[in-house]
């Protein structure tokens, strides 16, 4: 555990596109009393200038612009680096920031493979700094409440679950050069879209033990998949289905967990509030006071980058590893690798099976002849 810092942290953003301007900047603004935005990095000078204007309008008036990450790290020595660049850059930029003395909060996926993730873990160990990945759905009050109810046994033993990310992306979406390619995106909707929902499912249900999956390239002319499905067994014995799609005109994000005492269901698209969670007691359960406790968290905190940034700043003040980093975040990357391995090999995959000598450890396509970039 590192020592709690005393000074107000100085933050920098890397990448100034839509996700940083639309999500990270509002998060930093929401915590302007706790953190100072001092620098921004982007190779596109015009985009960088636009971001600096937006930052100034949001109250951060002394943001210095850089077109090189190394130059920014050397000049500014920030305490916190928020990364919103294309996925293939996350690993290298995260390691560079850690080695420069900063904590990191990176957009998903933090890495494109388990090998890259373990390299970041090694950099954390060497530097004493931490790298977290943006999994903001864990941090809404509805998710916090549901996890407490499930883990405490209040809803009874989890039995059956469904996790659904059925979104729609057209051909114009894949015209962006880095999308749909293994070396630049790491995968299709399994890595870039559904990862938020099944990360939340893992957060709610705990460790998984076995996965059996399928994947297809049904519509889009891309290297990776455009749909995947999986059957999952959890350590608790619960069974779940997971669907990740970019082929679905009726877009929805949904998690449903059927426990012995009640069903808990979340339906939303890109973010949730308390009202998006529904609890249905089992037939014959006649205890309105108990059911009311299920339905009424103390506060209504939307899932958001701001909620996660607040939790990270809390952890930094305590000198503790932040949630969304370390083994918990690695488990989500391992789940993705296992889903791909099962889908491409046609065999079940067990937790812990993908070790350093496995081709799916170094890439999500595992050099499979039907799916690797050289196919």
Automatic annotation (TrEMBL):
<protein>
    <submittedName>
        <fullName>Gfo/Idh/MocA family oxidoreductase</fullName>
    </submittedName>
</protein>
<dbReference type="InterPro" id="IPR036291">
    <property type="entry name" value="NAD(P)-bd_dom_sf"/>
</dbReference>
<dbReference type="InterPro" id="IPR055170">
    <property type="entry name" value="GFO_IDH_MocA-like_dom"/>
</dbReference>
<dbReference type="InterPro" id="IPR000683">
    <property type="entry name" value="Gfo/Idh/MocA-like_OxRdtase_N"/>
</dbReference>
<feature type="domain" description="Gfo/Idh/MocA-like oxidoreductase N-terminal">
    <location>
        <begin position="10"/>
        <end position="133"/>
    </location>
</feature>
<dbReference type="Pfam" id="PF01408">
    <property type="entry name" value="GFO_IDH_MocA"/>
</dbReference>
<dbReference type="InterPro" id="IPR052515">
    <property type="entry name" value="Gfo/Idh/MocA_Oxidoreductase"/>
</dbReference>
<feature type="domain" description="GFO/IDH/MocA-like oxidoreductase">
    <location>
        <begin position="145"/>
        <end position="264"/>
    </location>
</feature>
<dbReference type="Pfam" id="PF22725">
    <property type="entry name" value="GFO_IDH_MocA_C3"/>
</dbReference>
């Amino acid at each position: 555990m590192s020592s709690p810092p005393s000074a107000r942290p100085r933050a920098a953003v890397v990448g100034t596109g839509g996700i940083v301007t639309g999500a990270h900047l509002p998060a930093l603004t929401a915590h302007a009393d706790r953190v100072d935005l001092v620098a921004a990095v982007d190779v596109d000078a015009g985009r960088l200038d636009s971001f600096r204007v937006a930052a100034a309008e949001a109250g951060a008036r002394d943001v210095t612009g850089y077109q090189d990450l190394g130059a920014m790290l050397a000049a500014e020595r920030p305490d916190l680096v928020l990364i919103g660049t294309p996925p293939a850059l996350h690993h290298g930029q995260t390691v560079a920031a850690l080695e420069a003395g900063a904590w990191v909060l990176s957009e998903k996926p933090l890495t494109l493979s388990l090998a890259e993730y373990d390299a970041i873990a090694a950099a954390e160990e060497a530097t004493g700094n931490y790298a977290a990945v943006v999994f903001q759905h864990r941090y809404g009050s509805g998710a916090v409440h549901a996890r407490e109810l499930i883990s405490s046994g209040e809803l009874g033993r989890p039995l059956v679950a469904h996790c659904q990310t059925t979104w729609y992306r057209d051909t114009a979406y894949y015209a962006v050069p880095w999308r749909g390619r293994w070396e630049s995106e790491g995968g299709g909707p399994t890595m870039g879209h559904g990862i938020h929902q099944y990360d939340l499912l893992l957060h709610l249900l705990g460790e998984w033990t076995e996965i059996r999956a399928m994947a297809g390239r049904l519509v889009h002319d891309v290297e990776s998949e455009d749909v995947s499905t999986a059957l999952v067994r959890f350590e608790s014995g619960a069974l779940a289905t997971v669907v990740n799609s970019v082929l679905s005109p009726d877009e929805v994000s949904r998690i449903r967990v059927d426990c012995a005492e009640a069903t808990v269901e979340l339906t939303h698209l890109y973010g949730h509030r308390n009202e998006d969670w529904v609890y249905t007691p089992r037939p014959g359960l006649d205890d309105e006071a108990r059911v009311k406790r299920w339905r009424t968290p103390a506060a209504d905190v939307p899932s958001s980058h701001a909620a996660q940034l607040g939790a990270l700043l809390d952890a930094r003040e305590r000198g503790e590893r932040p949630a969304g980093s370390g083994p918990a975040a690695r488990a989500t990357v391992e789940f993705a690798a296992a889903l791909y391995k099962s889908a491409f090999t046609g065999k079940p995959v067990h937790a812990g099976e993908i070790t350093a000598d496995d081709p799916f450890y170094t890439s999500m396509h595992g050099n499979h002849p039907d799916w690797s970039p050289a196919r």
